[in-house]
Specification:
Blueprint: E1 4-9, H1 24-32, E2 37-40, E3 54-58, H2 67-80, E4 84-87, E5 91-94, E6 108-109, H3 119-139, E7 151-152, E8 157-158, E9 163-164, E10 169-171, E11 174-175, E12 180-181, E13 186-188, E14 191-192, E15 197-198, E16 202-204, E17 207-208, E18 213-214, E19 219-221, E20 225-226, E21 231-239, E22 242-243, E23 248-256, E24 258-260, E25 265-266, E26 271-273, E27 283-285, E28 290-291, E29 296-298, E30 301-303, E31 308-309, E32 314-315, E33 324-325
Parallel strand pairs: 1-2, 1-3, 3-4, 7-10, 8-11, 9-12, 10-13, 11-14, 12-15, 13-16, 14-17, 15-18, 16-19, 17-20, 18-21, 19-21, 20-22, 21-23, 22-24, 23-25, 24-27, 25-28, 26-29, 27-30, 28-31, 29-32, 31-33
Antiparallel strand pairs: 4-5, 5-6
């Protein structure tokens, strides 16, 4: 059986932007599979290894190469009498770095080695790689109705039973079995636990607990942790906060730099005012607290378990357990002139 040894050229000074999660060189290393390879910095380092029949130099402009392609490459090299090639321009070219024993009769086509020269080439390569990632996840048990429309990078892990709807984006994230990422949602560097649902929302660098529902049009970011069975509704933004199990923020709220206890209700229009113009401050809310609509919680602040904050109240002082707080001005009715 003919054997192949790979050299992968890597310029350490180049700024390789990730393509679908990995740099071009990392994609080549992944694509090599079981075929032996060595990463080198200069073409002159690509020297024949005695125990292998064929050698190939892969340029980092060809990230789409796979192990299957390389096995086909070995057959092509054998057929055309080539023992050393450079792969990087869509064709197999004799490379001067190899002391070849045979002269190639002609160049042979290698359509899988698509060279990336322009942004358009890069977009095409990304599209292919996103599809490969989606197909791999589907083969492992994830439910992806349309592998052509989703964006799943190589760093993401989708467990069996995870659902990714069309036009969703999953980057560097872990999606547990039974979780659902709805259409047009973005999940980046996050973990979505079993049974959770993300609907047309953005989740970045955060954890979504089991059975929690997010969205539509919610934004969760910056190291937030949402517990199990929570409800984060439309137009709710959560930043650097922890919501314990059963918390509900159904709509139109901002929760920043806060910890919210179990089964607390955050009313519509509530704002956790965490910034005093110079520094960010933290708010701690106990469990089973009711926060009425249009309330403002001015940090630093602590609210005890079971407290009740009446609608349209601005809270600036700590609240004790089971206290009732109301801070709005009494309305007046006057006759119109």
């Amino acid at each position: 059986m003919k054997t192949l040894f790979l050299y992968i050229l890597c310029d350490p000074t180049a700024e390789d932007d990730p393509i679908a999660g990995l740099t071009p060189v990392e994609w080549l290393m992944l694509g090599a599979g079981s075929i032996p390879y060595r990463v080198i910095e200069r073409e002159e380092q690509a020297l024949p290894v005695a125990e292998y029949d064929y050698h190939a130099l892969l340029l980092p402009t060809t990230p789409l190469v796979t192990e299957k392609d390389l096995l086909t490459l070995t057959e092509e090299m054998d057929r055309h009498g080539i023992d050393g090639v450079q792969l990087g321009s869509g064709r197999l070219q004799k490379t001067p770095a190899f002391a070849a024993r045979k002269q190639p009769k002609r160049r042979c086509a290698a359509p899988f080695a698509l060279e990336i020269k322009t942004r358009a080439d890069r977009y095409k390569a990304e599209q292919v790689l996103f599809r490969k990632n989606a197909e791999k996840c589907a083969q492992n048990g994830a439910i992806i109705p349309d592998v052509d429309s989703v964006r799943i990078d190589a760093l993401s892990v989708l467990e069996e039973g995870a659902v990714i709807e069309p036009y969703a984006s999953v980057m560097g994230s872990k999606i547990r079995g039974g979780a659902r990422i709805g259409a047009f949602s973005e999940v980046e560097n996050a973990e979505v636990c079993a049974g959770a649902t993300i609907t047309r929302s953005v989740v970045k660098s955060s954890v979504i607990g089991e059975g929690t529902t997010v969205g539509p049009f919610a934004y969760i970011r910056m190291n937030s942790v949402i517990g199990a069975g929570c409800r984060v509704g439309d137009f709710v933004e959560i930043k650097n906060s922890r919501l314990h199990d059963g918390v509900k923020a159904a709509h139109l709220a901002y929760i920043g730099d806060a910890e919210v206890g179990e089964r607390t209700n955050v009313g519509c229009g509530t704002v956790f005012a965490n910034y005093d113009g110079k520094k960010k401050h933290r708010t701690v809310v106990g469990k089973e607290v009711f926060i009425g609509a249009n309330s403002n919680l001015v940090a630093p602040l602590s609210i005890g378990n079971g407290a009740f904050i009446a609608a349209a109240t601005t809270v600036t002082k700590d609240v004790s357990e089971k206290a009732f707080v109301i801070g709005r001005v009494r309305e007046e009715q006057k006759k119109r002139e």
